[in-house]
Structure formats: structure tokens, C-alpha cells
Automatic annotation (TrEMBL):
Name the record gives this protein: Glycoside hydrolase family 38 central domain-containing protein
Entries under Pfam families matching the protein: Alpha-mann_mid (PF09261)
Region (Disordered): 185-212
Chain ranges of the Glycoside hydrolase family 38 central domain: 21-64
Keywords, in A-Z order: Hydrolase
GO BP terms, alphabetized: mannose metabolic process
Domain of life: Eukaryota
Gene3D superfamilies named among the record's database cross-references: Glycoside hydrolase family 38, central domain
Ranges of biased composition (kind: Low complexity): 197-206
Natural source organism: Favella ehrenbergii
GO MF term set: alpha-mannosidase activity
First and last residue of the signal peptide: none
Length: 212
């Protein structure tokens, strides 16, 4: 948080991240960016500029997430890693299957309170979830639902792995962070191996998918 102990370097890092994001958003106001009518190389440049600005902002935000967590006594951690909400599977997020306990902080950037939060997690039988209460300065257990499915990684090779969404019944207030502890229970079975499922057979015909 900003106070009299904030160094000039920290303030400059915040301003640099802000200016970078404002520049990228300014470029996005171009009519080709708004309508999606740009050529592919221009669209790629739009995406690159925005992802670069997000990375700069995230590096600053991660430090303040750790500072707030330590300040409130919720979680003692020196560093955090960012996982975008639109990541396809948990493999894209900074968690591993060997982690039995995961500390998670979610941020609600909207002006509306959110009653359910969805988190990408490695496959397990279930998770126990605790949420930190700022007022009581204590952890409380909340309800959660784990939904897993087989994610098709390579269509040609028919390789897949199990991906999971953890839906947590914890309110996230507008413009607030929520601190959670996830404790894995047991281990889920591996995704089933690929079988010869590219052939559909009826009583009179047989249709085989060749990947073409």
C-alpha cells in the first residue's frame, strides 16, 4: 500500500505500469481494433502490446497482494504468481499436481459482488476450502464443488488429461481481494487412455474419421 515508506522506485514502477496500460488501451481505440477488421499481423501486435502491459501491471500487483496478505495476517508469502481467469486449463496456471495445499487470492475488478468464484485446480478427489474473514481475523470453511473433465490436448494423437474447475461459495466484494486456502483430498484417477473412438459403426455402415 502507498504510504510515507513507499520508495521512489516503487512509485515509478506503479506509474510505468499505469502508463504502459494506458498506451495499450489507447491503441485499442483504433477502429480496426474495436471492430476486429485489422489484418492478422496487426491483430497480433494489438495482442502483444496488451499482454506486455498486463505483465508489467501484474508484476506490481503481485507485490501488493503479498503485502496485503501479510498485513492482514491471512497468508505469509513473499511472492505470488498470476493466473488469468480465461486460461484454458490448470496447466496454464502456476500450480502443480504435487501441491497438496494451495494459497489462492482472487480479485473482483467489477462493481458487483460475486457470490461464487471459479478456480482452476489440479485433479483431485476433492478440496477443502477455507476463506479468510477480515472482520473476525479468522479462517472459515466454505462449501465448494469440484467438476473435472477430460481435456483433449491433441486431436490427431487423441491425447488428453484431466482438468478441473473448483467452484467456491465465497463472496468476493466489489474491488476487493479474497484469500483462500485449498487443501487437496486424495488423488483423482488419470484421464483414460485414447481408444479407437474415431470409428462409428451401425448395422449397415462404418464411418471412420481420418483427421482430414
Amino acid at each position: 500500500m502507498l504510504n510515507e515508506s513507499t520508495s521512489d522506485a516503487e512509485i515509478q514502477a506503479i506509474l510505468d505500469a499505469r502508463y504502459s496500460m494506458m498506451d495499450s488501451l489507447g491503441v485499442y481505440q483504433h477502429h480496426d481494433a474495436v471492430t476486429g477488421t485489422s489484418k492478422q499481423n496487426v491483430a497480433d501486435d494489438y495482442s502483444f502490446r496488451l499482454s506486455r502491459s498486463m505483465a508489467e501491471s501484474n508484476s506490481v500487483l503481485e507485490g501488493y497482494v503479498a503485502e496485503f496478505a501479510n498485513f492482514y495476517g491471512a497468508i505469509k508469502a513473499d511472492s505470488w504468481a498470476m493466473c488469468n481467469v480465461n486460461n484454458s486449463t490448470y496447466v496454464d496456471c502456476p500450480v502443480t499436481e504435487s501441491d497438496s495445499e494451495i494459497a489462492v487470492t482472487t480479485y473482483n475488478p467489477t462493481t458487483v459482488d460475486q457470490d461464487v468464484q471459479t478456480i482452476k485446480v489440479p485433479p483431485r478427489e476433492s478440496y477443502d476450502v477455507q476463506v479468510y474473514d477480515y472482520l473476525d481475523e479468522a479462517w472459515s470453511t466454505v462449501e465448494s464443488t469440484l467438476l473435472c473433465y477430460d481435456f483433449l490436448e491433441n486431436n490427431d494423437a487423441q491425447t488428453s488429461y484431466k482438468d478441473c474447475n473448483l467452484h467456491v461459495g465465497a463472496q468476493s466484494r466489489a474491488h476487493h481481494m479474497t484469500y483462500m486456502k485449498l487443501t487437496a483430498k486424495g488423488s483423482a484417477e488419470d484421464a483414460p487412455e485414447a481408444t479407437d473412438s474415431d470409428t462409428i459403426t451401425s448395422g449397415t455402415t462404418s464411418l471412420k474419421y481420418t483427421g482430414q
